[in-house]
Amino acid sequence: MTESSRGVGVQANVIPMTLDAAFFLERAMRYLQRNQLRKAMQAFRKTIEYEPNNPANYCNLAGVLSELGDFTASNELLLHVLSEVDPDMAECRFYLANNYANMGDFEAAERFVLEYLDADPEGEYVGDAEEMLAVLIDEFGGGEAYARWEEERRLQELDEATKNGRKMLEDGKFEVAVEALEKLLQEQPDNVPAWNNLSLAYYYTGSHAEAVKVADQVLEAHPDNLHALCNLAVYTYQLGPREEFEFYAAKLQKLFPMNYDHAMKVGTTLGLVGQHEGALRVFQSLIKLVNPPEPVLIHSLAAAAANCGLYPAARRWWKVLSQGDECAEVGQYYLQAVHQAEQMGYRRLPTSYQCELPLQVRFDQMRRRMRQDDPSAWRSDPLLRAALYWGLRNGGEETQRAVIRILSLIADGDAEKSLRTFLRRVDATQSLQAAALYALQRIGARGSVELFQDGSVVTLSMSDVPLDIILDVDSSWRWVFDQVDIWLLKHHKESYAHSAKRAWTSFLKHTFQKSEKGIGKPEIWAAALLYAVMKQHNDSVRQKDVAEWFNVSSSSVSKAASRLNGFFVRMP
After folding, report:
1. Whose CA, among 47, 124, 328, 570, lies 20 to 30 Å from 552?
2. Superfamily of domain 168-301
3. Where are the domains of the chain?
4. Are 299 and 307 in contact (CB under 8 A)?
């Protein structure tokens, strides 16, 4: 082989060197492995020269600068990325938090770690960020930025919940929600969460056809909308037809969203529609992914197990709940319920998936609070307020009357709307209608109301509601005054009737507002009212005689009359 031929061959085997960002990145990584930080820094600078729009290059260089202790230069690069290159690169905020912590600027570090958690709540560094936040607060006296962050989040969530109606539903203000959401959706017809919440508000206020119609429209426009699907599953479970319910339930059975809130929605909905085995599968899968599990998830898992008759599993999870800081009362209540169910030999324990005491228990608590005469303790409690509306819709006449009485004391706009809605019900008795009308009087309602009478809805002006409507709340209350009126007329003392009625209605209003109990034996009160009005007019009458007229004891007349005396207008 000639010399010239060897030279040609050598030239043919030369591979040209390509200088680009990848070349310098590889070189920088080799320098890092050897802990040659300054050479790595120079190589990373080259990557920026070749690819000035790649945010990773800046972060790499910022990391080396941080290792070298040049936190100010590192921060300048990271802030440049957020302002000029890629504002969505959340990890830059975490790196900034680290740098500021090393610089001793703990407030800035706290601010940036919170910004990172906001920007990427499921990011790679969330665990480290939460640990850093705890250290900043516990070890370095921070917490001010965290408090501001918490307040901002609360206000943001409240604003969002108010805009789409969720807050009103959570507070049990269903009638107000209907009115507000209908108005909102005229201005924002593309607000899908508001449409779903309007559907629920319709359902809770008894407008079932409208609720189904709205949910159908949402699902037609957005076939993958989970909330509309869940709503329709609940509606068709309660209202039918069965075929549609089975269709929606089958779709839910196939779902397991990766989003925690969506998975909870699916599991809870399956439980609400009686698909307890499906609900149990969802909650069992979900609890493996959440550490530590939230109280609502623990209760949901226990409830699903109890509804399936799996008492050991239900007991285990409710025991966990009873030992926590939140919902311990719920856990303790259901531990006792499981024990009783086993003692009675029940195959399963029907349990609500809401992490709260059963509605009837909460309603009993509410009534105990009422007896303590402390409205501020429950007026704004959304759970107790929901119990009120449940009692008004589903309770017996005694419960409905108690709710009406409480609503008259709450006396806000939503209480008024609820009372107005109740008056239109076909099954509202005349005495309950009278109670609702009196409650509206007490609230100060104006304008007209609609109520169901004689097979149709009639309109009545509030100014035409009799001032003595309280007498019709209970048939015995009207009877007491009628007996006194008849006696006075028969004995030519009809001029006493006005003061007797005024005192009696005042006493009844006080009784209605302060107590759930009735007046007791009406004959005693008729005798007491007659005796009291006679004495008020200085008319000679013996207590013994009045008691004999009504066939009651003299002592009982004395006690009742003493209670009535304070409700008479003193004679001049």
Report:
1. 570
2. Tetratricopeptide repeat domain (1.25.40.10)
3. 21-158, 168-301, 359-441, 474-567
4. no
Task: Look up residue 305 and give its amino acid.
Answer: A
pLDDT in tens, 119-160: 777 777 888 887 887 777 766 655 566 566 566 655 555 455
Read off the pTM: 0.48
Q: Do domains 21-158 and 474-567 have the same CATH topology?
A: no
For 11-51, write each residue's pLDDT tens digit: 445 455 556 778 888 888 888 888 888 888 888 888 888 88
Tell me how far apart the alpha carbons of residues 141 and 134 are, in angstroms, rounded to a whole number.
10
The whole-angstrom separation of Cα 275 and Cα 255 is 13
Four-CA torsion 399, 302, 234, 267, nearest 10 degrees = 150
Domain spanning 474-567: CATH 3.40.50.300: no
Which pair of tokens denotes residue 90? Answer: 């959340």
- Measured between alpha carbons, how far is 306 from 289 in angstroms, rounded to an integer? 22
Give the integer Cα–Cα distance in Å for 44 and 356: 57
The predicted-structure confidence for 64-81, as pLDDT tens digits, reads as follows 888 888 888 888 988 888
What are φ and ψ of residue 434, in 5° steps?
-65, -40
Nearest to 454 by CA among 479, 475, 433, 478: 433
Number of other CB atoms surrounding residue 464 within 10 Å = 8
Q: Which amino acid is at 350?
A: P
The two beta strands, 448-453 and 456-461, are antiparallel
Fold for 21-158, please state it. 1.25.40
CA atoms within 13 A on the CB side of 490: 7
